[in-house]
Amino acid sequence: RRVHGEDPNSVSLTHRTLVQIESSGTVHAVVLWWEADLDAAGRIVLSTAVDACRGNLARDVHWGQAFQLVEDVDEDGTSVPFVVAANEWVSVVVHLAPALDELQVSLERAAPPQT
């Protein structure tokens, strides 16, 4: 989601992306990276993408990829592993802090996209 030049007060703080699961198993975490355009043309980019920060001092001492551990909840509200089946759809939900300086990621079970 690009927010360059936007008033932080006008940016949606929750973003959802539908993802189809390729194989059955347990989802333990969501791994992500970010990019920040530092100019309006997008020529100067600060990125934590894997290829962008390989052998990069900033990545080694400060920035890097991020991960968010995830879990599911059973009927009683007890935390349980997030078990998925092949071809199931989940929504990756990113919650941004109002200042756009922090984020939290969660998974939700989702219906397939309508075609």
How would you characterize this protein structure?
It is built from one helix and eleven strands; from the N terminus they run βββββαββββββ. The chain is mostly beta strands and 115 residues long. The strands form five sheets. A three-stranded antiparallel β-sheet has the order 1-10-11, with no helix packed on it. The chain has a two-stranded antiparallel sheet with strand order 2-9. A two-stranded antiparallel ribbon has the order 3-6. The longest helix has 5 residues, at 57-61. The mean pLDDT is 83.
What's this entry about, in short?
With 115 residues, the chain is mostly beta strands. It is built from one helix and eleven strands. The model has no long low-confidence stretch (mean pLDDT 83).
The major pleated sheet works out as: 3 strands, antiparallel
- How many strand units? 11
Integer average pLDDT: 83
From N to C, what is the helix and strand string?
A: EEEEEHEEEEEE
Rounded to the nearest angstrom, the distance between the terminal CA atoms is 23 Å
Proportion in β-strands: 35-45%
> Which outline best applies?
globular
**Which class of secondary structure composition applies to the elements?**
mainly beta
Give start-end ranges of low-pLDDT stretches. Answer: none
Query: What is the overall number of helices?
Result: 1
Helix content: under 10%
Rg calc = 17 Å
**Widest sheet: strand order?**
1-10-11
